[in-house]
Amino acid sequence: EGEGTMLDNTIVLCVNEISRGNTHSLDDMHFLLAGGAGGRLAGGRYLRFDGRPHNDLLVSVLNALGLDDQTFGDERFCNGPLPGLL
To answer: What's the whole-model pTM score?
Structure first.
């Protein structure tokens, strides 16, 4: 891995498909990103992006992997990458 560990050069995304099992709600959904994405992702932070669809997080992950995409999935539910994540 050169100057770091495998985790320094990886992104791990952990998420459940719903935020509350008893209501099947998608509100206040939590996502966990681990790894450094080769220096593109800073760790040790807690960020909130209220009102942003999860598609925007997935666009940000694509950008961290070196892809220049601006949408992921249905374009109606995508505003672009999350500001300040990378």
So the answer is: 0.86
